[in-house]
Structure prediction request, 165 residues.
Amino acid sequence: MSVVPGILVEQATPADFDRIAELTVGVYVDGELASPGYATELADVAGRAALAELLVVRDEDGRVVGSVALVLDGDFGEVTVGEEEAGFRMLVVDPAAQGRSIGAALVHECLSRARAAGKRRMVISTATPMTTAHRLYERLGFTRLPERDWTPVPGVDLMVYTRDL
Prediction:
């Protein structure tokens, strides 16, 4: 349950996968936060679900308006370096629902679940153009970890943030 009043974060179901794909591709690619070449990976929600916990927030009509992939184990996080670290990826909020603390609720739920799993720190990466996300992470207590910044493909520079749990 989310610590943000009035916002329920819950486990995604396979019935949510198409909407999560539509939302993620739309926000990242159509919003020019990621290249069109990344769309296939963004749309592979079933693949994500096999490697991470998919969490969602729904609006009052039950439509998914936010999603995130929480990585507690394995290499899907790509920035974690040990068993004490968790990560999350592909945090997305429907542009029509932004400004309602949905992103914050998803992050708080990731932190809570990672803590409950015995993790000691959350480590995430974010693309340099994602300034709104950077402000959210900083407001929620994340700090930069520049020594772990990385470039998965030429022209895509990712910044790493961390927060102790």
Notes: The beta strands are 9-11, 53-58, 64-71, 85-93, 121-127, 143-144, 150-153, 156-164.
